[in-house]
Amino acid sequence: MAASKLFNSIELLFINIFVVTIIFCVAYKPQSVIASINSYKEIAMSTKQIFSTNFEVFGKVQGVFFRKHTEKQAKLFGLRGWCMNTSQGTVRGQMEGELDKVNEMKNWLETKGSPKSRIDKAVFSETKEIPDYTFKAFTIKR
Protein backbone atom coordinates (compact mmCIF):
# COMPACT_ATOMS: atom_id res chain seq x y z
CA MET A 1 0.00 0.00 0.00
CA ALA A 2 2.81 2.40 0.93
CA ALA A 3 4.68 1.49 -2.25
CA SER A 4 1.57 2.23 -4.29
CA LYS A 5 1.19 5.67 -2.68
CA LEU A 6 4.88 6.37 -3.27
CA PHE A 7 4.54 5.37 -6.91
CA ASN A 8 1.49 7.63 -7.32
CA SER A 9 3.38 10.52 -5.69
CA ILE A 10 6.37 10.03 -7.99
CA GLU A 11 4.06 9.77 -11.00
CA LEU A 12 2.31 13.00 -9.97
CA LEU A 13 5.68 14.71 -9.53
CA PHE A 14 6.73 13.75 -13.07
CA ILE A 15 3.43 14.98 -14.48
CA ASN A 16 3.88 18.32 -12.69
CA ILE A 17 7.46 18.64 -13.97
CA PHE A 18 6.24 17.86 -17.49
CA VAL A 19 3.48 20.49 -17.30
CA VAL A 20 5.87 23.15 -15.95
CA THR A 21 8.37 22.30 -18.72
CA ILE A 22 5.68 22.68 -21.39
CA ILE A 23 4.53 26.01 -19.94
CA PHE A 24 8.13 27.26 -19.85
CA CYS A 25 8.77 26.13 -23.42
CA VAL A 26 5.57 27.68 -24.72
CA ALA A 27 6.41 30.97 -23.04
CA TYR A 28 10.09 31.13 -23.98
CA LYS A 29 10.71 28.71 -26.85
CA PRO A 30 7.51 28.10 -28.84
CA GLN A 31 9.48 26.82 -31.85
CA SER A 32 10.89 23.96 -29.79
CA VAL A 33 7.38 22.96 -28.68
CA ILE A 34 6.19 22.93 -32.29
CA ALA A 35 9.22 20.89 -33.32
CA SER A 36 8.55 18.41 -30.50
CA ILE A 37 4.90 18.07 -31.50
CA ASN A 38 5.87 17.51 -35.14
CA SER A 39 8.44 14.90 -34.09
CA TYR A 40 5.80 13.13 -32.00
CA LYS A 41 3.40 13.12 -34.98
CA GLU A 42 6.09 11.62 -37.23
CA ILE A 43 6.84 8.91 -34.67
CA ALA A 44 3.14 8.15 -34.24
CA MET A 45 2.63 8.00 -38.03
CA SER A 46 5.64 5.72 -38.50
CA THR A 47 4.24 3.13 -36.08
CA LYS A 48 0.94 2.67 -37.93
CA GLN A 49 0.51 -0.43 -40.03
CA ILE A 50 0.28 0.13 -43.78
CA PHE A 51 -1.68 -2.11 -46.11
CA SER A 52 -1.79 -2.36 -49.90
CA THR A 53 -4.20 -3.80 -52.45
CA ASN A 54 -4.68 -3.66 -56.21
CA PHE A 55 -8.10 -3.08 -57.72
CA GLU A 56 -9.98 -3.16 -61.02
CA VAL A 57 -13.45 -1.69 -61.47
CA PHE A 58 -15.78 -2.88 -64.25
CA GLY A 59 -18.85 -1.15 -65.70
CA LYS A 60 -19.36 2.33 -67.08
CA VAL A 61 -16.23 3.77 -65.50
CA GLN A 62 -14.59 5.61 -68.39
CA GLY A 63 -15.73 8.99 -69.65
CA VAL A 64 -17.60 9.66 -66.39
CA PHE A 65 -14.79 11.24 -64.30
CA PHE A 66 -14.36 8.00 -62.35
CA ARG A 67 -10.59 8.40 -61.99
CA LYS A 68 -10.92 12.01 -60.82
CA HIS A 69 -13.48 11.05 -58.18
CA THR A 70 -11.35 8.06 -57.17
CA GLU A 71 -8.32 10.30 -56.69
CA LYS A 72 -10.35 12.78 -54.63
CA GLN A 73 -11.86 10.06 -52.43
CA ALA A 74 -8.51 8.33 -51.90
CA LYS A 75 -6.97 11.62 -50.78
CA LEU A 76 -9.87 12.20 -48.36
CA PHE A 77 -9.12 8.79 -46.85
CA GLY A 78 -5.39 9.61 -46.66
CA LEU A 79 -4.49 6.85 -49.11
CA ARG A 80 -1.60 6.75 -51.55
CA GLY A 81 -1.34 4.98 -54.89
CA TRP A 82 -2.66 5.43 -58.41
CA CYS A 83 -5.47 4.65 -60.85
CA MET A 84 -5.67 4.51 -64.65
CA ASN A 85 -7.98 3.64 -67.53
CA THR A 86 -7.32 0.35 -69.30
CA SER A 87 -7.80 -0.57 -72.94
CA GLN A 88 -10.51 -3.04 -71.78
CA GLY A 89 -12.73 -0.18 -70.54
CA THR A 90 -12.00 -0.70 -66.84
CA VAL A 91 -10.20 1.37 -64.23
CA ARG A 92 -7.27 -0.32 -62.54
CA GLY A 93 -5.16 0.89 -59.64
CA GLN A 94 -3.31 0.33 -56.42
CA MET A 95 -3.88 1.86 -53.01
CA GLU A 96 -2.02 1.80 -49.72
CA GLY A 97 -2.76 3.13 -46.27
CA GLU A 98 -4.30 2.23 -42.92
CA LEU A 99 -6.44 -0.91 -43.08
CA ASP A 100 -9.72 0.76 -42.12
CA LYS A 101 -9.23 3.43 -44.79
CA VAL A 102 -8.29 0.85 -47.44
CA ASN A 103 -11.49 -1.04 -46.58
CA GLU A 104 -13.57 2.15 -46.75
CA MET A 105 -12.11 2.88 -50.19
CA LYS A 106 -12.85 -0.68 -51.33
CA ASN A 107 -16.48 -0.15 -50.33
CA TRP A 108 -16.54 3.20 -52.16
CA LEU A 109 -15.12 1.60 -55.32
CA GLU A 110 -17.71 -1.22 -55.16
CA THR A 111 -20.78 0.87 -54.38
CA LYS A 112 -20.36 4.57 -55.15
CA GLY A 113 -17.84 5.73 -57.74
CA SER A 114 -18.47 8.93 -59.66
CA PRO A 115 -22.03 10.29 -59.99
CA LYS A 116 -22.42 9.20 -63.64
CA SER A 117 -20.64 5.85 -63.34
CA ARG A 118 -22.23 2.42 -63.22
CA ILE A 119 -20.26 -0.15 -61.28
CA ASP A 120 -20.86 -3.75 -62.35
CA LYS A 121 -18.15 -5.19 -60.11
CA ALA A 122 -14.89 -4.36 -58.40
CA VAL A 123 -12.12 -6.93 -58.00
CA PHE A 124 -9.39 -6.63 -55.38
CA SER A 125 -6.14 -8.48 -54.80
CA GLU A 126 -5.38 -9.79 -51.34
CA THR A 127 -4.82 -6.90 -48.95
CA LYS A 128 -1.29 -7.25 -47.59
CA GLU A 129 0.65 -5.43 -44.92
CA ILE A 130 3.68 -3.58 -46.31
CA PRO A 131 6.67 -2.22 -44.36
CA ASP A 132 6.50 1.31 -45.78
CA TYR A 133 4.66 3.47 -48.30
CA THR A 134 5.58 2.97 -51.95
CA PHE A 135 3.91 6.17 -53.20
CA LYS A 136 4.01 9.77 -52.00
CA ALA A 137 0.39 10.57 -52.97
CA PHE A 138 -2.58 9.20 -54.89
CA THR A 139 -2.33 10.08 -58.58
CA ILE A 140 -3.98 9.41 -61.92
CA LYS A 141 -1.74 7.62 -64.40
CA ARG A 142 -2.24 8.42 -68.07
Overview of the structural elements:
There is one protein chain. This protein is an alpha+beta fold. It folds into 2 domains: 2-46; 50-140, 2-Layer Sandwich (Alpha-Beta Plaits), CATH 3.30.70.100. The protein has helices spanning 2-28, 30-46, 66-76, 99-111, and strands at residues 50-60, 80-85, 91-97, 118-124, 128-130, 138-140. Strands 1, 2, 3, 4, 5 and 6 form a 6-stranded mixed beta sheet that branches. It is elongated.
List the helices and strands and how they pair.
Blueprint: H1 2-28, H2 30-46, E1 50-60, H3 66-76, E2 80-85, E3 91-97, H4 99-111, E4 118-124, E5 128-130, E6 138-140
Parallel strand pairs: 2-6
Antiparallel strand pairs: 1-3, 1-4, 1-5, 2-3
Helix pairs in contact: 1-2
Q: What is the count of DSSP helices, taking H or I runs of 4+ residues?
A: 4
| Pattern of helices and strands | HHEHEEHEEE
Extended strand count: 6
Oligomer: single chain
The class by helix and strand makeup works out as alpha+beta
Largest sheet: 6 strands, mixed
CATH class of the largest domain: Alpha Beta
Low-confidence stretches: none
Distance between the termini: 69 Å
